[in-house]
Design goal:
alpha/beta, seven-stranded mixed beta sheet, 35% helix, 24% strand
């Protein structure tokens, strides 16, 4: 069913500073898109079926701009190391297991089911170098109803032997075959995924650039996460002024190549300016940045400069698929950054992190993440009635409480692109 009405406390963003709330109002889904939010239902929609969630909170679906599906089995482990040591000690050991399709199937079953049951409706997902396992991941996300970009990872240097593709030509060839085999998914789309510059030779990035131009694909990768990583990129890429140039010189950094870069914790002025000019999206992953001692990204500053941004869970450096938890962590990290480093940039507000989690990240998928007219109809109904309190709370306070308590388990219904994923009867 693509035409219906949801009644409830409707909450959505128009801008990063404007949280719109219509108490016990109506949001209309028409042909899978939002036909607007109303205090009183227009007569033209009265014949639509109405799902009555009076007094519950109805929000746009949440967007995860950066998550590593194969790392889900070891979330909550290995948080005593910084980035490069963590990758070598924990991440690569786990990702090598996905050469075994039986293991990949069991692991991705769990990931897809948990993502389906979360408040996330859209995600940018890393797989591994294994094309068959990545296709399996795409199939399971498709079956779960999630809208996603999924990438087969590319790595041809500075990687363990079991994860280092034998050549740039082989990596690009396997990627092209994977692209051909991934054409039949309806809601899960391919995205080019060079893991990060240290793991990709110049030859590989050049070949991926050719695939990008041929198939008009977006790209996802990592950028300026860790100071040691940045120094390593400088050593590997002589002649570049900053990390982002290592992608930009191959046309993999915005403009005609939509790009989302995770972290951007230590992006300097020149890199930030280029990100804005190219329209690069920042996937802010605050819990991961804290766990791996990377730092606190200046996300408020990015927003003020008009740089596109959203949130990422960054499993498994982040511990949870909850974008609510990422929202709370983003506020907390911004407060620490303001207190300890830069008092010229105020901490993030609830309105701003809600925007990042919905419309901000949703823009990478087009018109998604809001209930404004014409947006893809992604909606999550939150039932917070079991959170006991003697206080009478306003709707905004209840939403803030959901964010800080990361209460994903209180989901009464979920819709993606107008499709019903699940709904309490």
């Amino acid at each position: 069913m693509r035409n219906y009405v949801i009644k409830g406390n409707i909450c959505y963003s128009r801008t990063r500073k404007e949280l719109c709330i219509v108490e016990n109002g109506y949001v209309v889904c028409r042909d899978g898109k939002s036909a607007g939010v109303y205090e009183l239902l227009p007569e033209s929609y009265e014949a639509f079926p109405c799902y009555n969630y009076e007094n519950k909170i109805v929000i746009p679906g949440l967007v995860d701009l950066h998550v590593h599906a194969p790392q889900y089995p070891f979330r909550g482990l290995g948080m005593d190391l910084e980035l490069i040591d963590w990758l070598n000690t924990h991440t690569f050991v786990e990702e090598a297991k996905y050469a075994d399709l039986d293991y990949a199937g069991r692991a991705y079953d769990i990931f897809a089911e948990d993502l389906r049951n979360s408040a996330t409706t859209r995600a940018c997902v890393f797989g591994t170098i294994h094309a068959d396992a990545t296709l399996l991941l795409m199939e399971k996300l498709e079956n779960a109803g999630i809208t996603a970009y999924v990438g087969k990872v590319n790595m041809d240097r500075n990687s363990p032997k079991c994860l280092c593709e034998e050549s740039a030509e082989r990596s690009a060839g396997d990627t092209q075959r994977w692209l051909h085999d991934s054409r039949n998914f309806k809601h899960v789309m391919p995205i080019l995924t060079p893991r990060f510059t240290p793991s990709c030779t110049d030859e590989l990035l050049e070949k991926l650039s050719g695939l990008q131009k041929r198939y008009h694909l977006p790209v996802q990768s990592h950028l300026s996460e860790n100071l040691g990583e940045i120094a390593w990129v400088k050593e590997l890429c002589p002649g570049t002024e900053f990390y982002g140039e290592s992608y930009d010189r191959y046309g993999l950094f915005g403009n005609s190549c939509p790009a989302v870069m995770a972290h951007c914790v230590h992006s300097g002025e020149a890199e930030t300016d280029l990100m804005k000019r190219r329209g690069v999206f920042v996937a802010h992953c605050p819990e991961s940045n804290a766990n791996l001692v990377s730092g606190a990204a200046p996300v408020k500053l990015y927003l003020e400069r008009g740089i596109r941004a959203g949130l990422g869970t960054d499993i498994a450096a982040g511990s949870s698929l909850s974008i609510f938890k990422a929202m709370a962590a983003a506020v907390q990290c911004s407060k620490l950054r303001w207190r300890l480093y830069d008092q010229s940039v105020a901490p993030l507000t609830v309105e701003e992190v809600f925007y990042l989690a919905t419309k901000g990240g949703g823009e990478f998928f087009g018109k998604a993440g809001s209930f404004e007219e014409g947006y893809e109809f992604d909606a999550v109904v939150m039932d917070d009635s079991s959170i006991r309190s003697p206080r009478e709370l306003r709707v905004r306070e209840r939403l803030e409480r959901l964010i800080y308590l990361a209460e994903d388990r209180h989901i009464a219904a979920k819709f993606i692109g107008g499709r019903e994923i699940f709904r309490e009867r």
